[in-house]
Records
---
Amino acid sequence: MKDSVISVKNLVKKFGSFIANDNLNFEVFEGEIFGFLGANGAGKTTTIRILSGLSEPTSGEVIIAGFDAKKQAEKIKRNIGYMCQKFSLYEDLTVKENITLYGGIYGMSRELIRARTNELLDRLRFHEYENRIIADLPLGLRQKLAFSVAILHDPKIVFLDEPTGGVDPITRRQFWEMIYETAARGITVFVTTHYMDEAEYCDRISIMSEGKIVALDTPENLKKQYDVDSIEKVFIKIARPVNN
Amino acid sequence: MNRFLGFVKKEFLHIFRDYRTLFILFGIPAAQILIFGFAVSTDVKNAGVAFLDLSKDETTQKLTDKIISSGFFRRTQNLISYNEIEDVFRKGKTKEVVIFEKDFGKKLLSEGKANISIIADGSEPNTATLVTNYTTAIIADFNREISGIRVNNSGLIQPEVKMFYNPNLQSQHMFVPGVITMILILICALMTSVTITREKEFGTMEVLLVSPLKPIQIILGKVMPYFLLSFVNVILILLLSWLVFGLSVKGSIILLLAESMLYIMLSLSVGILISIVSSSMQQAIFISLVGMMLPTILLSGFIYPIENMPKVYELISLLMPPRYFIIIIKSIMIKGTGFLYVWKETLILLLMTIVFIGISVRKFKVRLE
Amino acid sequence: MQKVIESTAISKKFRETQALKNISFSVNESEIFGFIGPDGAGKTTLFRIITTLLLPDEGEMKILGLDCITGYKELRKNIGYMPGRFSLYPDLSVEENLNFYATVFGTTVKENYDLISDIYSHIEPFRKRLAGKLSGGMKQKLALSCALIHKPKLLVLDEPTTGVDAVSRSEFWTMLAKLRQHNITILVSTPYMDEAMRCDRVALIQNGNILSIDTPQKIREGFSRKLFMVKANEKYKLITALRSYPETLTAYPFGDSVHVTLAGNQVNESLFDYLRQAGLKNVSAVETVAGIEDRFLELMEKEEKV
């Protein structure tokens, strides 16, 4: 059995009388690609904020990369990476400047930043772009770079928010290959998305509805369990919110 | 027509829903007038005055008593020499020094006239003007009293007023016209440009363009609410300055309001122009503030007299609409002059308005590029 | 039958980027026509030309029989447009937004209520709520109601399903299908391949080029080789191994499997042996039916080779 990097027990988050997260229990393991799905307003955002140390749970135990989300939020932040579809990189800075800035934020030494930058540019075959500003790069390249930058400091977990929205099918596959590679290196990948075909790429997925986790299994098992041929159909069967 | 009214209604909904901005729009001018009005009225009740009596005779004693017993002043110190003047101002409590020349009483009797100097602390221009105005009024009154006794009416006491620190003192009367000039540019140019660019940013402009609304309807629909708001604001400022501050419009109110409307139209067309060249609200705000507000304050003659500017700035100020409006509004409000005295400025504003509106309508795109 | 849109060799350039190259297609009355392609493919530019917001550099675009350049005033009365970002006023309520768009187009909500009732009924309980406070799915429904309120002959929807959850998206497509009975032609764009199946006909678009136009079924059938779905216990290893297998033409991850085309057009024991030797377990390989995305990948590769 692999080590658990995210462990959530009886997590409850209330805003006044509104229960955003209603007694969540789940574990995510090292090197796993975990899909976190749910309708708009199901409570996903709240959970992710708690998992990334931005918000405190009302009650329950949340351990991220070995740290308690209630007491050690700062340590958690050092051990996670985050990439969302839109605002990950500064558009008016060059590729290199973005990487250096990011490394600096995570307190990496100058030598380490330089070494990692080269390694990253090699891997993406990006050397010709290193002094270009982000705004001039095609969307697909930006997404790949944003992901690489999010794991520059070798986090235990990387959170991806709808990472491949709007990119072309080839780039998308290259992106998912990068995710597989990252997971193979032992980094846990936590993906949230509205797009169910993206969910099919994950090792396991959970589906949230009205603050509760209503399903958690491998995509294959879920499809079998609900006797349908796609995760989208599973989702529509169980995640239907009350007129949202 | 229905379309247009629907559009205007929507604009009003935007304005009234954003109560913070609305509050600022009406709150700031009101606050400026109020703060100013109250600050002045409390100061003049008990303004500190120091006397440098180089004559020390019966007449100077009488005049000193008259000044102090007026209720507006309070004696802070009796000075012995000129050297003490600056010192007494530095302490801050004294707003004015009254100086009687040597042999004041004797001169008045023998030559029929005598000199008195009034020096005020110009670092507080509004107080300084008020204080010296009050003092000269008291002296004038004193003049009348003694002229009743004496047959010879000419001459008498000649007050000479000087300002310390700020010789080019602006009168408080400048303040109200200045606020009006500034507020109008602020509301009209800034708010109009922001509301149009906001539609661009939200993507709603795309839908409006694809609708059967004509460009002129969109422009007018945007402009109308702000035209009304600005007009209400002008009336509000005038009312407040009259109620609180006692400043009434000396000239024709109708003329003043008509000129204001012209200036509002001009500012609105500037706003539309800004919105056409800027692609985001941020840009529109920046251009309005840096491009309109600062020049208005600095180059229109509102704070710094145009006559004292370097030639280059003076030339630039020729292009500033507020410069002309300040002249117009000052003439009407304070000097009470009629249209004949401001027709040139009015004509310039009118031409500017026509040019700006012309450019706006021409430049407003029916498409996205 | 009259064509609702007839585009002939439309090209459009923005500074250095050629956004559209020689785009020709036609749309029939009452059909749902989809443009499927990634961000930056030119979908939005094309839709803006159709909605008379942009002028083409070259080519001819006829919409409802009118030229998109000279007939723009008349066209604007008959097009319903929902831009990529839902064009709503966040500080106005649901009801106020709808009423506003109705008056702008010279109609009333009452007059065309039957057209939008299906859609609007979902959000009517919240009609006093500010549009900015709605969830993504509700915003989408309101924006659609607003675009429909003047009963347009042509409805142009630019990425209406982006950022909306799967349940709302599925509902949305059902609503579009129902609109067909009102004789409204619908032009819709999406970056999501799976949504192609909900359209009557689709055009696959990439880098300003149309790769293919047909019914979704025909497009899938256009896939030229046999496609195999390969699974094993470790995905990353599987992909790398398949790429190095000499018979492999293409290997792309696809959900929990890898879609592979092989030179011999069939799976034989040597593939299994090869994968097992690479250390993979539970290897399975079955033939599968190509989807729109498989065909898109194939067309993209062809394009790149050219």
---
Amino acid sequence: MRRLVALPLSKSFQMAYQSIRVRFFRSLVTTTSLVLAVAFLTFTQAGNDITEGLLISQDPAFLQILSKIGYDVSPDAPSINSSPKQRWIVFLSLLVCVVGIINAQLMSVTERFREIGTLKCLGALDRFIVRIFVIEATMQGLAGGVVGALLGTLVALTASIFRFGSAAVSVMPWTDLGATIFYAVCTGTGLSLLGVLYPAIIASRMLPVEAMRVEQ
Amino acid sequence: MTEKKKIVRVTGVTKDFDLGKIVVKVLKGIDLEIEEGKYISIMGPSGSGKSTLFNMIGGLDKPTSGKVFIDEVDIAQLDAYELAWLRCRKIGYIFQTFNLIPVMTALENITIPMTFAGVSNDAALRRGMELLDQVGLTGRHTHRPSELSGGQQQRVAVARALANSPAIILADEPTGNLDLTTGEDIIRLLKELSLQRGVTVISATHDYKMLNVSDQVVWIRDGQVDKIQERDELDIRTGGLESARH
């Protein structure tokens, strides 16, 4: 008979949730950096979506404003895509965000060395530890992604209404915006997972004795 | 006297710590046999290697050479899964610093090992409450470690160690962070549980209060077993005087 220890998924979720709830402020800081990065990504992307929608509508009033702020509105112009510069800035902001998350998660792992060692003494496998950290990061990523995406879209919408007038709402490309929000949430979650992977693996590989030796 | 089962057997264990330029030999060949159901104290000054020996017995660290058998199983032969199973089911750990999970309540702390062992949630909760009663913490199940005193935290840790009815309880300086009376309470609790359940208790300590309840005392000096004393060989005078001095 193979002797196995187990950690049911529901229990892992409970442990991850508890850990976030108790260290709420620290989680909030980590999540905030994610919210800002995702909001920025969504803002630029949604801005492009909206402009594109206005262009497709071929409404002369909108076209006039668009050409005034520097867009090529001739019928054979290519569709509006993010410029290389825009993409570069978004990429940089995401990079900064990931580094921030890795930093915060490393701190959080160091803070919990003893806890991790104790869990291992009680029979936890390496992958239980990784799993708890990954679930935590997913929760933070989803929360940060959703809040960030909504925030970014909201700001982009408000900005466009100020710029083009409330009539712009009628030609909003809602499906495109929805897709943008969806991708932004996925990106947020992905970034959060990317940030936690290295710290979680360090944590799980630690021998229990080493974890216990840490002074706290 | 009938031959009792040897629950722990340590043969020729050495442990070197490589500190880069020098290699420190912490354990220099330890041979030890521990009978089932006994209350053993491993005594020795700090730096004698008793904690290291202790970690070897608990499967928390691997010896440089020599073998450690728990229940006649060589723990060096176990893979990560079997080792985790051993830690979960066979051994209960009690630490000097209690090491409860700070984000969990007393009851949740006690039920973690049972969750790992695959016990259903309801059964784990029921048994957790029973254990809390046994260690004298009835009604404290919703308290977090930070809301409990040192002695109470150690009681939770004792209950946690007992959760999966292990064969061995390893207590590393269980009274090190407790005051005199609280320490005595914990020692008495361990002794009672050892008698009731037939659990082997092995504690590393330099607390002389432990001597009074021990069946056997293993003295470690400079990485070697100095002497092993049975309870009736113990010099009562030493115990009395030393505990008075504390």
---
Amino acid sequence: MSSVPGGPAGAPVLEVDDLAVTFARRGEQATRAVDGVSFAVGASETVGLVGESGCGKSVTSLAIMGLLPRRGVTVSGSVRLEGQELIGASDSRLRTLRGAHMAMVFQDPLSSLNPTVQIGTQVTEVLLEHRDMSKSEAATEAADLLDRVGIPDPSRRLKEYPHQLSGGMRQRALIAMALACSPRLLIADEPTTALDVTIQAQILELLRELVVDTGTALVMITHDLGVVAGLCDRVHVMYSGKIIETADRHELFARPRQPYTGGLLASVPRLDAGRGTPLTPIRGSARDAIPWAEGCAFAPRCDNAQDDCLTEVSGSVVPLEYDGPGRELRCRHPLEHPPAPSGATAAGAAR
Amino acid sequence: MSALGELKRERIDQLAARAGQVPEGEGGVSLTRSALRRLRRDPVAIIGAVIVVLFLFVAAFAPFLAPRDPLAQSLLSDIRPGFIPGSQEGFPLGVDNLGRDLLSRLIYGSRQSLMIGVISTVLGVIVGMALGVLAGAFGGRVDTLLMRFVDILLSIPSLLMAISISVLLGQNQYALMIAIAVTQVPIFARLLRGSMLAQRGSDYAVAAQALGIRKSRIVFGHVLPNSLSPVIVQATLSLATAIIEAAALSFLGLGDPDLARPEWGAMLANAQAFLSIRPELAIYPALCIIVVALGFTLLGESLREALDPKFRR
């Protein structure tokens, strides 16, 4: 249950403990989007939250940032940023923390920038809000920031509008804004999804450099296992609002234990597969999940599912348990891997 | 494959260096500037703008353009029951029943009509926007309360509302402007509130929130500027409506009590009695109203297209 102590250096930057988010609508049954998620991120560490659409990754990130609407949403559990509790903190307290101590980069760089305002104004705005700076100091700093995230000719770009920048450059500008006040925590919510592949690699490289240089804790939310492989130290796989497997990056790719993780890895298209070889998807869709109270949510789609994957005693959830050093697993019938080094072919093992 | 020749390599480097350069003076293109640029290429916008500018010009320089004093009576000896003299030397459009030059009255009348149209629309926009910003920025209970009030205003037919207000405030042109403004308020309030609510949930508003920008700054710096374009468009269109409504109210006798002062609506009302003798007395002011309204409408419609961010490149 307890979060694995992360990070090489001391106390973690972010500790999420038993976080749950419930959306309630009048006259409808409440939906539990995030259900008892716990993890920790240390300085300079990159933690990945992986899963399909609708598994609760983005809601988790919004809950950490305190950006969920108040009405109809119940957030419980604990989120601590450098030891300070964020759940239940006042709006003004959260506002001073956001941007200064924690920041977020969103999925779509075009719609995340205000189309009617110059890039420069949007960057300096953050500096003026959180740092004691004059307008001209902020302008110089903004140019420095754009330069640091690799935007050429920053002083000209500052005067331009978002539609005049390319997709990659917009995302760089957003990263510059997020990093303007050197936050301790950066949450990147699918930052490369809207970009083409060559730009994706550049943005990931940039994020990695920034994390290493500044010691920022990075939470990477993605459904792209390529991103995980390239960037994350530790990975939490989420399904239907719960973490179902936690492992170090290498461990996860070499020996996925949860059949869902195995399925995710197997479904990645392979360049070396022969022509006409069909892709190996996971059966069904995320909507086929059953409530955790009734058993393993993934059971309906799982090839390994057996009778005891459904709980006899309703209410007893399949627990997230220790599964070797640095690993946790929520599964009663995990994938077995032979101790032989051939386990590296995850795709084969998963089927 | 052989290596590139020294010369070729140099040439490639030169070309690459040149491609990297950006022409000077190509800085940011703001929303207004790019909208103006698109307007200039749109023939409909040009027609609308020409009409509007023409009438504004006429209104501004009325004393220099009008051939005669709009109040001076002449040709009185020619006016008999059943006959009003038409176009003749010195009176290009003839005179009205009191012997006043019709052309001069039309020219001076543009001042009154445009002024009422512009002032009442500006009033309507200011009050409507204030209500809309309040509702859009706060949402929740404030929004509900304001919008119900606006709904009540909207449920009353605008002409009826204008008539009641000008009756209430007395018969003068300020009452007329306020009456027309009141009928415009709910439209602008609703429009701005709707587009602000839509923008408030947009990604950049959430992103700004995630950066810890204070709420007032998000509302006025981010949400409001992005919500304005429908209001600008509606204001242009409302100008046309306001001019027509002003004419209608003066036609009904609720306008300026000084009947001698030229105003298109009042001229139209006055011409009623002489329709069978000289229909031109009604046709010309009506035509003026129609053309000005058309000009503003054309301009508004093309403004709508020009400000649409979907067309932005």
---
Amino acid sequence: MITVAGAELTGALEPVPGFIESNFNPLVYRAAVEVLTGREFDGSRLAVVVCSLIGDATTTGLASRLLVDGQVHNAILFMQATANAVLGYLSREFDLTGPLLSMSTVDDDPRDTAELLLADPELDAVLLLTVELAADERTAAAYRLLGRTPPTTDGATALLLERDPQ
Amino acid sequence: MTGGVVVTGYGVFTAFGWGEKALRDGVFTGTQVFAPANRFDPTPFRTPMTAAAAGDPDLVDVLGGCADDAVDMAGLPPGTAGATLLGSAGDWKSVTRYSRGLDFSPGAGVPGVLAGAVADRVGFRGPRLAFTNACVASASALIHGWRLITAGRQDVALCAGAYLVEEENMAKFDSGRTLSKDGVIRPFSLDRTGLLLGDGVAAIVLESEEHALARGAQVLARMTGFGVASDAFHIAKPHPEGRGIASAVSQAFRRAGVSGVDYVNAHGTGTPANDGAETNGLRAALGTNTPISSTKSTTGHMLEASGAVEFVVSLLALLDGAVPPTAGYTTPDPACDLDYVTEGPRRLALHRVLSLNAAFGGMNTAILLEQP
């Protein structure tokens, strides 16, 4: 497996339409755009994998606070609460009709998933996106439970991976 | 034929209770058990109705119980070097408890931690992944298990999905106006107004055929193929022509080298948008003669667990030669013109069945099961 393109983003980014309450989805989208723009590929033969241990805790926390405060939910939170919704936006822009996955793992290397997908003769490339947000009080407790230092910044990486022609 | 991926065990929990008998007695008779939620106050929401089992069971406990049942049925020894692949967004109740200032379990809200907890419980030592892609999450786990086994990287994969009705998602689906307006779910019917949430947890043992035969395991069915495709259309709405569904079905057929099935367990959420789009995709891929049903009409929508529970429903249909009905159907919709098995359960000799799911982001999965 070879890396044909990569990108790394941190900090606050311009919102993506429909994904305005959290930095999670803009990180996914803009990291993907940075790698895919200007590149030729067959969108039916490219898989996208979003890997995040915790996921979009900002949206989760906001929606939960609204719930316990008895306030009406914002429908935008319904849309952006699922980690894969932004992939619908991305897939429309780049006509990606292959597999779109999002996953969470503690110890497994997400590159193993990319390598497994590349064993599929119906796929040529995998866009692997890893995203974590700065920890809040709730997620910091989860990181500590796992013996890890809670992240203090929002960040994402994107790798465009293909089979090694050798 | 050898060299395939087979099913050797399963465990299942729904609003009907534990195990296959509860599922047969409920889903296969078209029984609807929707009632006002009593795990939380449902009065703020568009409908109070959900399909929930009695009490307020703990997600980790139910998931562990289903995993135990699956591994026991498969007869796998402790310490099996299998993969554990889960479809789940985590235990939402831990999030709510935190927001209310109550004691909470920090790990239960993290999907990857749940996958590890299941693996530790059954003693599986292979990869541990949680898929979080909403309503195709546990179908994605099953497909990943197929990939691991077919690629020769694992002999065994425990593939599971878990969702229990709680108020965080009730509120989100309420705000998205996807819950049934009148508290009734009627997939494919002209008067359908939306979905209802339901409890669902299932765990399935997939295994390489060689491994299963070598240890003398009973093979329940073969998973002969899958398709996974995206609509490239919208963040939440399905492609109106069912582009991704049709593509996923065609891909599953291509991988399995087949051209049709005897029954389709549809995604069939009961929302106006899903059922029309799914019908269009199925018509394009299959024509109009294949029996189709939505068992969400009895279980409710089990979100990340849908793929795993409906895999078990499809498996039981195959084993029993019985197509479960689409319950609640009242009125034909010109946009939904297929054979939805609305008259009650239908006895049929089934050789091959297809389980479909779809999710936000325009994702679609199709899984083929065949008689062993």
